[in-house]
Each structure stands twice: as structure tokens, then as C-alpha cells.
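User: Sequence recovery, please. Input:
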């Protein structure tokens, strides 16, 4: 394996020089050599998008910072899946496409300089922009002719301002991402898509809590995944498993399966360990254990709704600590984000026809979990009347609500259509064969509310 330094290709670490062409030349050399390592020494390496190649290792030495330019026109369209739908979006800052044996490692920092992207998104919203306007948006609209009918989660599909992920692996195998700090992502931070044999280890991921749609890790239709000893603090969901949204995800039909999440810490996110809301091809055989999800809005979060599709099954969540959350356990089939019509049949309390787009949640075990100071409620389990949550087992758990908190039980999850409750109890609605064993709830006047 060859080992090269970016300086060998004209690179400079002064934080001013644009290293885009140097990275391109370096990875072309590695590709021609049949694989190799590119080393970044201490200093600030400014660049636009980077494409990794087969058999490549990108190593950031301690003190090295990979810093990305923020002009959208520098990130050309790239085919991906964006909020659950296959389409073109702006090129990820770091991308591996159709690659094998790829590693990004070291003790350095990967900085997406996301504040410029977040402010631009905010400015577009405040200006009332409702359709593509800038040349890069118009180009994405041309490449995505059906974008107006495609579902979204609130990220900006209607104007085709499809911000790039920080690191994305697409249709890859044997991938390692370890040791580095990733911060200030324009959009989702780490997005493996259609990837097999993935190790995410010893990562430190940090985005401001107010930064829009900046999920930490989004494992999307991947298999054989290990997420170990990662620390995540972000502006949306922390560690999230997905498999496509609605008809497009059903068409692609690539589930996420065989996932281990262990010894991780998630802080200040909308959800700690999350499933969905893009669930179309299913999520199966997941074990999450020995994680600290304290300070998140929701510790365990499983979310979908009518139209999203998919079966979520064989999920085990063990020995999780979830102090100071709004709600430690939230299983929600009335998830509202991306829908503006409160009265849509998606949120009807009456049974609707069961179709291929009806999601199903079954065979979930939550064991040995605890949470103190739950601000909104002790738990939230809401299935569909036509498709109740099946075979849910919760045992050996202990939750304490913060009765002095001013947060309403209605803040336990993001939903439309459900009747109001006023007690911070463990809410259970449309759940078949639910089993609660040795579950202690302290604080509310009523421990469980069954609907």
C-alpha cells in the first residue's frame, strides 16, 4: 500500500489555499496504485468536495482539520437518497460511491462549516421562497422532475435546496470510520447508504442543537453495521436507522438489518437511538445496549406513519440510561413532520385500509432501562388502530417523572390527531400483546394510561 501526503500533490495546510484539485490528484494516484493511504498533517486543509476510491485510507493526524468551503455551487449534483427518496442532491462533502475497503481514521477534525448553510436555509424560509430559484436548485429540480410529489421530513425538498451530508458512503462494502471528530454538518452528518459491513467507532459528532436537520448518524438501508463507543450531540436525531420512505422506499426494497449499537453516548438531540421515520423496506435484528441517552428529547424513538410502509421487528434495547429527557420511550405511528394538513387521513383515529404502505412494529424488547426526571411523560406507545404495535415487552425498567416541569405530556412526541392527555403517565394506545414486567414508574398520579 502506498502512503502519500497531500503536500506531495501541491496541498497546503494554511486554511486559505483551496485543496480541491490536490485531493483529486492524490486519490487518482491511490486508485492507479491499487489502494493506499493519504495523510493529512496538523494544520487546516481547506477544500470543496472529496471523492474516496477503492482501497483508500484517509488519515487525519492529531491537529489536522479538514475544513470545507460553503459555496453551494462547488457541490455538483450527486445521486443519493435524500430524506428517504432516491434523487439528486448536492454532492456530500466527503463521499465514497461504489467502493470497497474504505477507511477514514485519525484524531483530526472534519469541519463542515455548517453555519453558512443553516443561515442560508433560514434566509430562504424568511424570504418566503416556495420554489427553486438559484441555479443549483434549478438544476436539481431538472434532475428530479417529480420532486413536488416526493415526501420529505421538513428539510427543504419543495425548493430543492438539498443540502449535502458531511460524510456519505453509497453502495459500498467493508467501510471503517473511526476516531475522528465531525462537526458543523450542513445536513445529516454520517450517512451510509446501501452499504454492507460498516464499522463506526470512537467518533465524536457535534452540531448545535438549533442546527436544522443535522442528524448524527443515519444508517440507511445498510446491513452488518457496528456503532461502537460514539459520542453524539446534534440538532436532530442522534443515532438513527432508516430504510426509505413510502412508494420509493418500497420500490427499492432494501432493509436495514443486523445492527449493533453499543457503549455510545447521545446528548441534546431530538432522539437518542431512533428508528425511522423512513421505514419503507423494514428494519430488523437490532441490538442497542449499554448506552447513555440522557439529555435527549426522547431516549428510544421509533417513528413512522401511514404511507411510510415497512416492518420493524426483532429489536432489543438493553441497559440504556435516559435521564432528563422529555420522554424516555416513544413509539409513534402518528409522526407529523413533513405534513401540514392536521386533518389528513394519515392521522385518523379510525381504522384505515391496510396496504403495502402501512407500517408495522412488532417484537420489540426494552430491558433494564432507566430514566430520572422525565419532563413530559414516562413513556409514549401509540400504534395504529388497523396495525397495533405487536409483542412489545418492557421489563426491569424504572422511570421517574419530573412533576414540577412545565412541559406538557403532549410534547412526548411529534404527532397530529391524538386526544389530549394531562398526566405524565406511560401512555399506551393501540398496542396488542404488550407485556410490562417489573416496570416501576414514580411521579404521576396514574402510572399507565391505556387507550
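Assistant: Recovered sequence (451 residues):
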Amino acid at each position: 500500500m502506498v502512503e502519500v501526503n497531500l503536500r506531495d500533490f501541491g496541498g497546503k495546510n494554511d486554511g486559505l489555499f483551496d485543496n480541491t484539485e490536490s485531493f483529486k490528484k492524490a486519490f487518482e494516484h491511490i486508485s492507479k496504485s491499487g489502494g493506499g493511504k493519504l495523510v493529512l498533517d496538523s494544520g487546516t486543509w481547506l477544500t470543496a468536495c472529496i471523492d474516496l476510491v477503492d482501497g483508500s485510507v484517509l488519515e487525519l493526524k492529531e491537529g489536522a482539520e479538514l475544513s470545507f468551503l460553503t459555496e453551494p455551487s462547488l457541490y455538483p449534483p450527486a445521486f443519493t437518497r435524500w430524506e428517504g427518496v432516491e434523487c439528486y442532491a448536492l454532492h456530500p462533502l466527503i463521499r465514497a460511491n461504489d467502493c470497497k475497503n474504505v477507511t477514514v481514521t485519525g484524531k483530526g477534525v472534519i469541519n463542515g462549516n455548517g453555519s453558512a448553510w443553516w443561515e442560508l436555509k433560514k434566509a430562504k424560509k424568511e424570504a418566503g421562497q416556495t420554489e427553486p430559484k438559484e441555479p443549483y436548485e434549478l438544476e436539481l429540480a431538472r434532475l428530479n422532475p417529480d420532486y413536488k410529489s416526493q415526501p420529505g421530513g421538513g428539510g427543504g425538498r419543495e425548493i430543492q435546496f438539498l443540502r449535502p451530508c458531511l460524510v456519505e458512503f453509497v453502495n459500498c462494502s467493508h467501510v471503517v470510520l473511526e476516531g475522528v471528530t465531525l462537526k458543523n454538518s450542513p445536513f445529516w452528518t454520517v450517512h451510509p447508504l446501501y452499504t454492507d459491513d460498516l464499522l463506526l467507532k470512537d467518533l465524536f459528532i457535534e452540531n448545535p442543537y438549533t442546527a436544522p436537520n443535522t442528524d448524527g448518524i443515519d444508517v440507511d438501508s445498510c446491513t452488518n453495521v457496528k456503532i461502537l463507543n460514539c459520542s453524539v450531540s446534534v440538532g436532530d436525531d442522534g443515532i438513527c436507522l432508516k430504510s426509505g420512505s413510502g412508494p420509493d422506499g418500497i420500490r427499492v426494497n432494501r432493509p436495514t438489518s443486523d445492527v449493533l449499537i453499543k457503549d455510545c453516548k447521545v446528548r441534546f438531540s431530538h432522539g437518542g437511538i431512533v428508528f425511522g421515520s423512513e421505514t419503507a423496506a423494514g428494519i430488523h435484528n437490532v441490538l442497542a445496549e449499554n448506552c447513555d441517552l440522557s439529555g435527549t428529547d426522547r431516549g428510544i424513538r421509533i417513528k413512522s406513519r401511514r404511507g411510510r410502509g415497512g416492518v420493524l421487528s426483532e429489536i432489543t434495547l438493553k441497559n440504556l440510561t435516559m435521564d432528563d429527557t422529555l420522554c424516555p420511550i416513544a413509539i409513534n405511528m402518528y409522526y407529523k413532520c413533513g405534513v401540514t394538513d392536521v386533518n389528513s387521513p394519515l392521522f385518523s383515529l379510525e381504522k384505515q385500509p391496510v396496504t403495502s404502505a402501512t407500517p408495522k412494529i412488532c417484537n420489540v424488547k426494552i430491558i433494564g432501562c432507566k430514566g430520572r426526571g422525565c419532563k413530559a411523560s414516562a413513556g409514549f406507545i401509540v400504534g395504529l388502530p388497523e396495525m397495533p404495535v405487536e409483542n412489545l415487552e418492557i421489563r426491569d425498567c424504572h422511570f421517574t417523572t419530573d412533576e414540577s416541569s412545565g412541559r406538557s405530556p403532549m410534547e412526548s412526541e411529534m404527532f397530529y390527531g391524538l386526544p389530549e392527555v394531562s398526566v405524565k403517565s406511560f401512555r399506551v394506545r393501540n398496542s396488542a400483546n404488550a407485556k410490562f414486567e417489573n416496570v416501576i414508574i414514580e411521579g404521576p398520579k396514574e402510572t399507565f394510561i391505556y387507550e
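The mean pLDDT is 97.
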